[in-house]
Specification:
Keywords: Cell outer membrane, Membrane, Receptor
Mean pLDDT: 92
Oligomer: single chain
Number of strands: 11
Main location: membrane
Number of domains: 1
Protein name: Siderophore aerobactin receptor protein
Subcellular location: Cell outer membrane
Helix content: under 10%
Domain TonB-dependent receptor-like beta-barrel: 44-223
Strand content: over 45%
CATH architecture: Beta Barrel
Structural class: mainly beta
CATH superfamily: TonB-dependent receptor, beta-barrel domain
Largest sheet: 11 strands, antiparallel
Order of helices and strands: EEEEEEEEEEE
């Protein structure tokens, strides 16, 4: 969907989709012979099954002035995996849920007759994942576990291009980001509990320099 009134400097958009796929070819070879062609499946094991469904939504907005254009986008995605497969004498159930959302605000100069073009932006990405695992013997549970993982990135960036002549330009940019993640899991194996957790965070600064020259009206060389 797109809403863009005539003679107005703004517009908005929305999109949503859903996709589902299924598969029945999920089998494994022995762990000690990964190049072998003999599947690790016991007689009487059920057929493997996997289903993945993905839902996506995007909301966007745009505002234009005489000298600048501002873009705002926010997107979400959810994935759900249902997965069952035999491994040797075990039956493995491994459902998984995965969620992600992204937001970005960007401002860029507008127009051709400029000595300097600029882009500024703010960015955020957040990811969350949950994985359940259950390994069952024909007569009893063998192993079960649940794991959680999260990751987040916050960033600010800027890029400038200086048009020295109508054919030659140089540019530079910088990106500051803060990244953090965490993971934890717990479970039991033949009645014996286990688990662990951990966290990490980091700050990064990335930069870039570029130069371009228009050789002819049809050819331009560029280095970065």
């Amino acid at each position: 969907l797109r809403l863009a009134p005539d003679d107005q400097p703004w517009e908005m958009g929305f999109a949503a989709s859903r996709e589902c796929t299924r598969a029945t070819q999920d089998a494994y070879v022995g762990w000690n012979d990964i190049k072998g062609r003999k599947l690790s499946i016991s007689d009487g094991s059920p057929d493997p099954y996997m289903r993945r469904c993905t839902d996506s939504q995007t909301l966007s907005g745009k505002y234009t002035t005489d000298d600048w254009v501002f873009n705002l986008i926010s997107a979400w995605q959810q994935q759900h995996y249902s997965r069952t497969f035999p491994s040797g004498s075990l039956i493995v159930n491994m459902p998984q849920r995965w969620n992600q959302d992204v937001q970005e605000l960007r401002a860029a100069t507008l127009g051709d007759a400029r000595t300097v073009d600029m882009v500024f932006g703010l960015y955020r990405q957040n990811t969350r994942e949950k994985l359940n695992s259950a390994y069952d013997m024909p007569t009893m549970p063998y192993l079960s576990s649940t794991g959680y993982t999260t990751a987040e990135t916050l960033a600010a960036y800027s890029d400038l291009t200086w048009h020295l002549t109508d054919r030659f330009d140089i540019g530079g940019g910088v990106r500051f980001s803060h990244d953090k993640s965490s993971t934890q899991y717990h479970g039991s194996m033949l009645g014996n509990p286990f688990g662990d957790q951990g966290k990490s965070n980091d700050d990064q600064v990335l930069g870039q320099l570029s130069a371009g020259y228009m050789l002819t009206d049809d050819w331009r060389v560029y280095t970065r």
